[in-house]
Amino acid sequence: MEERLAKDIRINGMGQVPGGNYGKINTDGAATIQGEVRCASFTANGSLKLTNSIYAEQFRLNGTGRSSGTIAGGKLRVDGTMKLDGDVSFSSININGMLQARGGAVGEQAHIDGGMKLDGSAQYETLKVHGLLQVCGRLRARELDIVMAGACRASEIRGERISVRKRLGASRVLAWLSSSLAPCLTAELIEGDDIVLEATKAGVVRGNTIRIGPGCEIDHVEYRVHYEADPGASVGRAGQAP
């Protein structure tokens, strides 16, 4: 019984995998995973449908994926598009394309080249985005670097080092993902130690060192050490915290 549960699975063409514990799962074609799965590694080339949650130490998708549950594990790489109803919980995430979840995302580090859309919140130690980032909830990252190729948003952004810039010369894929919207970040609150912003609309920006660049519209800036604003920025009021 234990030997059967730990076996490897390979699908070429169309096929289904029942829920359970496995070693390696490899699919080439159109695969459906029925039930909850735990495995050491999961590699899917083509189309993938997950009817439940999955845990994999290494998860790689080349193509399109759809999950009805949560995906979690060690390392996640998506080259294509992945949509899911649950949360995304991986230590390391690398997305070349689009990741969209009705839940939230949590992990150590994430690199997004394309887009990530979350109905929930996001929390990472390091988060680097080239493209789109849309978080309906709160965004927390010790180090946050966003190079925008379209409309980005979060209700609140908190971190230590926060950098938001516009991307010049975006690729065709990123131009399509942006839906022809000008690069702009919108947030109610941005709070951190070292903050550099471009093309950002925010109610409050609070931090130690704050640099407000061109295209920004900020209602209130509260700084502790240093503050500067580009002539092309609009700041309602700025004051040094005691």
Major pleated sheet: 12 strands, parallel
Strand content: over 45%
Determine the oligomeric state from the structure.
single chain
Radius of gyration based on Cα positions: 20 Å
Overall number of strands: 12
Helix content: under 10%
Query: What is the overall silhouette?
Result: elongated
Count helical runs: 2
* Global structural class: mainly beta
**Pattern of helices and strands:** HEEEEEEEEHEEEE
- Poorly predicted runs are 1-5
Average pLDDT score: 92
The termini sit apart by 67 Å
Task: Briefly say what this structure is.
By secondary structure, this protein is mainly β.
Please tag this protein with its features.
single chain, 242 residues, disordered N terminus
Could you characterize the architecture of this molecule?
The protein is mostly beta strands and 242 residues long. It has a domain at 1-65. It is built from two helices and twelve strands; from the N terminus they run αββββββββαββββ. The N and C termini lie far apart (67 Å). The model is unreliable at 1-5 (pLDDT under 50).
